[in-house]
Design goal:
- It is built from 14 helices and 16 strands.
- It has a seven-stranded mixed beta sheet, sandwiched between helices. The protein has a six-stranded mixed beta sheet with strand order 2-3-1-4-5-6, with helices on both faces.
- About 4% of the residues have low confidence.
- The chain is an alpha/beta fold and 437 residues long.
- Helix 13 crosses helix 14.
- A hairpin with a 2-residue loop joins strand 2 and strand 3.
- The chain folds into three domains: 159 residues, Rossmann fold (3-Layer(aba) Sandwich); 177 residues, Rossmann fold, CATH 3.40.50.300; 80 residues, GMP Synthetase, Chain A, domain 3, CATH 3.30.300.
- Guanosine-5'-diphosphate (GDP) binds next to helix 7.
- It comes from Cyanobacterium stanieri (strain ATCC 29140 / PCC 7202).
- InterPro entries: G_ENGA (IPR031166), GTP-bd (IPR006073), GTPase_Der (IPR016484), KH_dom-like (IPR032859), KH_dom-like_a/b (IPR015946), P-loop_NTPase (IPR027417), Small_GTP-bd (IPR005225).
């Protein structure tokens, strides 16, 4: 995944023209309206040795009474939250507007480096004069450009790439962050040893984000896995006071940092209350997960055994039915090699992005099979449209006439439809039901 640059600005300032210019595509300019139904499309772009993706967020307005106003803001926020930098486009012909000021003050709270670009400055002589008043926005130097003709874009890109790492550094960041989580004695350290055993290509300890956290990096094929806080996994129990308490806080922190959690349970104990607590946390944090049922070697088996244990997991972890599971022995190494395949799949589901048009096809189809419930007053629930607002975990906003009319049963039905039609294996999926405002 290349770093993302978000293009922000009021409608009609020329955001899509700029996106076209920077991505070298000269296709028709998309009608620039407040950004509700339009897909966020990611276009590849580069300058010198930097590569990035550029995304147009749709026209941003703060002062309008459009019913989707909060959503527009949310979508811009979502775009910005995954962006490494932002380009804020203003209209040099029109001059500084109140709308620009609102966007600027919002941007200043966002902690994303911003390049201020004054578009429609066709004449290079007058450009600087046109741009000057935008110093007032407090976002640093305004760069006069013409998205249509291309003048000035070199200077602004020069500024932009200061915030973008060179390609070879980015590849290092392409890794799946994995946390090994479980109660004491379920076999986490044994599993860590098995996963990082001699047969692996490269294992190297790297420092984690907190002072005493040590991560380990494992490579397999093209993929890098960062095993989070392996020091915490190995920490010996019953040493200090409050070791258990320390353990769970550490586990919570590791979950927070992970993309995928290896949720280790001791199959001899089944799923305990403490396990449920950890599972709940994984879901709360929106992490992908693989359920690793360990110590399978110690189970006496006949031909039915696996089904009985499957059933037990189904029952106890019904709220995590999206997670794939695997029965392993960290001790003998049985099936340990397959764990990373499941991690790959879960990571893929976790970062999966589906276009608005596909989401709406699924909704349309689902509603045809099974229409939303009608209240006793005869009012029926209606879904106007949906769109995926973010990834990790995938989150879909559904715009409806009245969220109260779409009961839990129908919400579960919808989630099931999304999963059946679109995948999302191994990851929680969040649906936000939004009424008209
Ligand atoms: P941790 O506290 O979760 O890190 O658990 P450890 O890795 O220290 O393992 C706890 C105990 O379970 C140790 O005595 C291990 O030898 C044992 N153990 C771990 N994995 C397995 C396994 O796959 N099968 C069996 N039979 N024992 C295991």
């Amino acid at each position: 995944m290349l770093p993302i640059v978000a293009v922000i600005g009021r409608p009609n300032v020329g955001k899509s023209a700029l996106v076209n210019r920077l991505s070298g595509e000269q296709d028709a300019i998309v009608f620039d309206e407040p950004g509700i139904t339009r897909d966020r499309t990611y276009r590849p772009a580069f300058w010198q040795d930097r590569e990035f993706q550029i995304v147009d967020t749709g026209g941003l307005v703060f002062d309008d009474d459009t019913e989707f106003l909060p959503y527009i803001r949310e979508q811009a926020q979502a775009a910005l939250s995954e962006a490494i930098a932002a380009i804020f486009v203003v209209d040099g012909k029109l001059g500084l507007t109140a709308g620009d000021e609102e966007i600027a003050s919002w941007l200043r709270t966002q902690n994303v480096p911003t390049v201020l670009v004054v578009n429609k400055c066709e004449s290079e002589n007058q450009g600087l004069a046109q741009a000057a008043e935008f110093w007032n926005l407090g976002l640093g130097e305004p760069f006069p450009i013409s998205a249509i003709h291309g003048n000035g874009t070199g200077e602004m890109l020069e500024e932009l790439i200061k915030h973008i790492p060179p390609v070879d550094e980015i590849e290092q960041e392409e890794e799946i962050r994995v946390a090994i989580i479980g109660r004491p004695n379920v076999g986490k350290s044994s599993l860590l040893n098995a996963l990082t055993g001699e047969s692996r290509a490269i294992v190297s300890p790297v420092s984690g984000t907190t002072r005493d956290a040590i991560d380990m990096v494992v490579r397999r094929g093209e993929t890098t896995y960062r095993l989070i806080d392996t020091a915490g996994v190995r920490r010996k129990k019953n040493v200090d006071y409050g070791a258990e308490f320390f353990g769970i806080n550490r586990a919570f922190k590791a979950i927070k940092r992970a993309d995928v959690v290896l949720f280790v349970i001791d199959i001899l104990d089944g799923v305990t209350e403490q396990d449920l607590k950890l599972a709940g946390r994984i879901i709360e944090e929106g992490r992908a997960a693989v359920i690793v049922a360990n110590k399978w070697d110690a189970v006496e088996k006949d031909s039915h055994t696996i089904y009985e244990y499957q059933k037990m997991l189904d029952d106890r972890l019904f709220f995590m039915d999206w997670a794939e599971r695997i029965f392993v022995s960290a001790m003998t190494g049985k099936r340990v090699d397959n764990i990373l395949d499941l991690v790959d799949r879960a990571a893929e589901g976790h970062r999966k992005r589906v276009s608005t048009s596909v989401i709406n096809e699924v909704i349309e189809e689902a509603v045809k099979w099974h229409s939303p419930p009608t209240s006793r007053q005869g009012k029926q629930g209606r879904i106007y449209y949906g769109t995926q607002v973010t990834v990790k975990p995938p989150s879909i906003a559904l715009f409806v006439n009245d969220p109260k009319r779409l009961d839990d049963g129908y919400r579960r039905y919808m989630e099931k439809q999304f999963r059946q039609q679109l995948g999302f294996k191994g990851t929680p999926l969040r649906l936000f039901w939004r009424g008209k405002r």
